[in-house]
């Protein structure tokens, strides 16, 4: 029994991205808001971050979901879910990419999306508009 095999811990899971609003280590958060609640038992986000992810004018990144007219709720829910995944999930290690930025050292890149989720996102947002070509930069 002393030589029993202990499973190795996956170094790419149960860690937080090194970025502006992330905790240094995942852990229980108690109450996470709305669509971020699935991560409450082991989260990289705080309750306040989860609340801000749901606001039209969020303090997270000085971003407004309604930057080009009102974004319909059925469309907005996909973007909020994406924000919750990015801010709260402790299991994004396989997709962490190093960056040199003033507000983050890591980001996620090429995270797979289920075909059904992609098709539903398109269906729910195909009639919505954005006034921005690149959502990653140039917001004043």
Automatic annotation (TrEMBL):
Name of one Pfam family that matches: Folate_rec
Record GO cellular component, one term: external side of plasma membrane
Annotated GO MF terms: signaling receptor activity
Domain Folate receptor-like: 16-140
Keywords, comma-separated and alphabetical: Disulfide bond, Signal
InterPro entries referenced in this protein's UniProt entry, alphabetically: Folate_rcpt (IPR004269), Folate_rcpt-like (IPR018143)
Keyword match Disulfide bond: yes
Top-rank taxon: Eukaryota
Extent of the signal sequence: none
Family statement: Belongs to the folate receptor family.
PANTHER family registered for this protein in UniProt: FOLATE RECEPTOR, FOLATE RECEPTOR 1-RELATED
Protein name per Swiss-Prot or TrEMBL: FOLR1 protein
């Amino acid at each position: 029994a002393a030589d029993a095999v202990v499973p190795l811990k996956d170094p790419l899971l149960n860690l937080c991205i090194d970025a502006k609003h992330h905790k240094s280590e995942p852990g229980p958060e108690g109450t996470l808001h709305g669509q971020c609640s699935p991560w409450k038992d082991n989260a990289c986000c705080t309750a306040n971050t989860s609340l801000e992810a749901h606001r039209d004018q969020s303090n997270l990144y000085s971003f407004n979901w309604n930057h080009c007219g009102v974004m319909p709720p059925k469309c907005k829910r996909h973007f909020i879910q994406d924000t919750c995944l990015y801010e709260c999930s402790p299991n994004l290690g396989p997709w962490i990419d190093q960056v040199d930025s003033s507000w983050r050292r890591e980001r996620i890149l090429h995270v797979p999306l289920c075909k059904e989720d992609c098709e539903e996102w398109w269906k729910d947002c195909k009639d919505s508009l954005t006034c921005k070509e690149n959502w990653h930069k140039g917001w004043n």
